[in-house]
């Protein structure tokens, strides 16, 4: 390696053993665009002699080719690997690098500075123990500096290095450095950092990176690398209660049954008492295996298989915990969410929530407040947009095992996933379980849905009519109900306009209000199905995700989607209220089909086009479908 120090050539095994026993520090570099994060890491790799000869030659050639630093080496090119990053001079993805000194091993994440890639920065921070927050000495504390500092705090990092970079461009001014440090400490005071160490530096020139610089004799603190080598910032996962999220039930033969996963915190050894969540069953550990090798004890981040003394029903998604300190479980909790999607978060919309070992349906039931990253003030809001942070209440389809994030970053974190695209759209940190989760329970009733339906001689269901305004939904639904009434069946219509006079009178027509509108109607329709009724729901219901949510509230076969597919131009000709005309003139906002999207059903049970058949024929077609499929039998 270039400028490499002598390795332990006399006893390589002893050297490797000593290297293995070194402590590990995970840290990130973050800050605003072009604050010098990549240059800093490149300089660290260069000065710690971890660049191979061919890498050094390639770096020198690339530096000349890019021409960003004249004849000097551009250290940022060591970590800005993407072509787009080199061309734009910014970091887009998270670049992880390993390096080592005689005292410690390091994994550093070079995270993006641009606001657009804040979600990537949060990914890098999620596993770090310390954050190096860079500030351009010429620019001072910026909005992105504050945003990254807040996210760092939110993600549980308690140690910060305030790296005031590019001091060479301000003549190594002590006054500039002290002004920035004072401003930053004032802003960061409420964030709960255990330590903030401010260091004036020039990553490009190497000032205060590995050794103290003569250019800043007024600086009484440490240089960066010596501080990183000695700071006690590593997460104390070993000292926390044992948690093993079960990823796999290991059953290679009839004589062996083990439970495999990666230890999230604590340690486990033979003879330890454990408790399984959610069942609450207890047992003792009889064997601990790492691969095929048995060990007496294993700690955090080790992939293990454990066997137990008792035959307990344990499945993927369960958590094996320390017997004297089990984790909590809940289906309703409060959490901070960092939103990572271009599409807004809508309370009431159903997402998928993934913890360390389990995935469940989840809904943000309430956005309590948003956080202003500049002032840390709480602000009201109905939705979260890209890179915003909010404090929310969530409800899950099944209970999850958890620890509060402040107690355990491994078991207190989750991500939200879009059900349609399977992309990660949010990262969450659980604060606490809501009391209602413990106080509200299902009450067993003697008369159930089947009994109520049998009395009415019908199979209960939801007929969900969806389509544009003017498509004929309400007209057809009304005719269907009249026909069912003539047949002696028990029905009820939930019509969009009528419901907005009562249950949903507080909701407008924004996307977020439309989501809540359908959520309430879906829950109401579910209760009516439980009462044994055939419920006719006539709503525009423009979003596929909310119609899917309503479908999943009831059992298979109890939700029948009726897509009234009448074309937009026909709907406009039926515009007796003049709503389309007003929307075209911009007098009505958020009007479906004009300036608000309608997501047409892809697999509706029935599709009706009232521009091709009369409403009476459409109604008969629907009633015939109900008869042929047993909904009117009994």
Keywords:
26% helix, eight-stranded antiparallel sheet, flat, 4 domains, Elongation Factor Tu (Ef-tu), domain 3, alpha/beta, 634 residues, Rossmann fold, six-stranded mixed sheet
Report on this structure:
This protein has 634 residues and is α/β, with parallel strands linked by helices. The protein folds into four domains: 219 residues, Rossmann fold; 85 residues, Elongation Factor Tu (Ef-tu), domain 3 (Beta Barrel); 109 residues, Beta Barrel (Elongation Factor Tu (Ef-tu), domain 3), CATH 2.40.30; 180 residues, P-loop containing nucleotide triphosphate hydrolases (Rossmann fold), CATH 3.40.50. Helix content is 26%, strand content 27%. Strand 19 and strand 20 form a beta hairpin. The N and C termini lie far apart (83 Å).
SSE order and pairing:
Elements: H1 12-20, E1 23-31, H2 37-47, H3 53-66, H4 83-88, E2 95-100, E3 104-110, H5 118-125, E4 130-136, H6 143-154, E5 159-165, H7 174-188, E6 195-200, H8 224-230, E7 243-245, E8 248-253, E9 256-262, E10 268-269, E11 273-277, E12 282-290, E13 293-294, E14 297-298, E15 303-308, E16 319-322, E17 328-339, E18 350-354, E19 359-371, E20 378-379, E21 389-402, E22 413-417, E23 424-433, H9 435-439, H10 449-456, E24 461-466, H11 473-486, E25 491-495, H12 496-499, H13 511-530, E26 534-538, H14 544-552, E27 559-564, H15 568-573, H16 579-584, E28 606-608, H17 615-628
Parallel strand pairs: 1-3, 1-4, 4-5, 5-6, 24-26, 24-27, 25-26, 27-28
Antiparallel strand pairs: 2-3, 7-16, 8-9, 9-15, 10-14, 11-12, 11-16, 12-13, 12-15, 17-21, 17-23, 18-19, 18-22, 19-20, 19-21, 22-23
Helix pairs in contact: 11-17, 13-14
